[in-house]
Amino acid sequence: NAGVTQTPKFQVLKTGQSMTLQCAQDMNHNSMYWYRQDPGMGLRLIYYSASEGTTDKGEVPNGYNVSRLNKREFSLRLESAAPSQTSVYFCASSGAGGAYQPQHFGDGTRLSIL
Amino acid sequence: DAKTTQPPSMDCAEGRAANLPCNHSTISGNEYVYWYRQIHSQGPQYIIHGLKNNETNEMASLIITEDRKSSTLILPHATLRDTAVYYCIGSSGGSNYKLTFGKGTLLTVNP
């Protein structure tokens, strides 16, 4: 049972390069999320998708775009990477229905931008 | 979302109970208290949540004060593998809720 799978696990980019972080979940969850975590800090929400076909901005969306490709997959794209985007990126998903559904997290993508 | 306040760090002896406090004095009536933890280099892991009643599961117990202004997460028999950052989060329930993570409490379990 894989849960939430993120690829790649590590990546080094040069300033100005673009890349897409991939996230897939196999729990049939409706909602998916992208967070970033900087050293010594808690997680901050970048974007989320409440259901297939919808996306919304979170706390720190600038410099990022997202695509909810289907129910399983939610990708995060950096069009022109900047050193300030060096961070650990976490994807999460949660189910629908009921008063509460916990978020399940992947193991993160560690991204360094030189 | 409610603002939460947690001590930055705590120590606990292995085998003893770890009691992690959280203050959420501005929590509103429909906001749940959630606890997650993050073991070094891993993604956060859900532990437990509650609204106003005390809750217990296989991982921990959650004690919420009657006025809901504070809560305590209890790990009954801490092990070295419980060393992690613990986050207390106040947020509305529902399938589209958004979590706001603070800096949490670094719990170090000592042998």
Question: If you had to describe this structure to a student in words, what would you say it looks like?
Answer:
The complex is a heterodimer of chains A (114) and B (111). With 114 residues, chain A is mainly β. In chain A, strands 2, 4, 5, 6, 9, 10 and 11 form a seven-stranded mixed beta sheet that branches. A four-stranded antiparallel beta sheet of chain A has the order 1-3-8-7, with no helix packed on it. Chain A has no helices and eleven strands. Chain B has 111 residues and is mainly beta. Helices cover 0% and strands 47% of the residues of chain B. Chain B has strands at residues 9-13, 18-23, 31-38, 45-50, 55-56, 61-64, 70-75, 84-92, 105-110. In chain B, the strands form two sheets. A five-stranded mixed beta sheet of chain B has the order 1-9-8-3-4, with no helix packed on it. In chain B, a hairpin with a 5-residue loop joins strand 6 (61-64) and strand 7. Chains A and B meet through strand 4, strand 5, strand 9 and strand 10 of A and strand 4 of B.
Briefly note the structural class of the backbone of chain B. Answer: mainly beta
What is the strand tally of chain A? 11
Distance between the termini of chain A: 36 Å
Largest sheet of chain A: 7 strands, mixed
Q: Level of helix content of chain A?
A: under 10%
Tally of separate helices of chain B = 0
User: SS-based structural class of chain A?
Assistant: mainly beta
Order of helices and strands of chain A: EEEEEEEEEEE
**Biggest sheet architecture of chain B:** 5 strands, mixed
Helix-strand layout with pairing:
The complex is a heterodimer of chains A (114) and B (111).
Chain A: E1 4-7, E2 10-13, E3 19-25, E4 31-37, E5 43-49, E6 56-57, E7 65-68, E8 74-78, E9 87-94, E10 104-105, E11 109-113
Parallel strand pairs in A: 2-11
Antiparallel strand pairs in A: 1-3, 3-8, 4-5, 4-9, 5-6, 7-8, 9-10, 9-11
Chain B: E1 9-13, E2 18-23, E3 31-38, E4 45-50, E5 55-56, E6 61-64, E7 70-75, E8 84-92, E9 105-110
Parallel strand pairs in B: 1-9
Antiparallel strand pairs in B: 2-7, 3-4, 3-8, 5-6, 6-7, 8-9
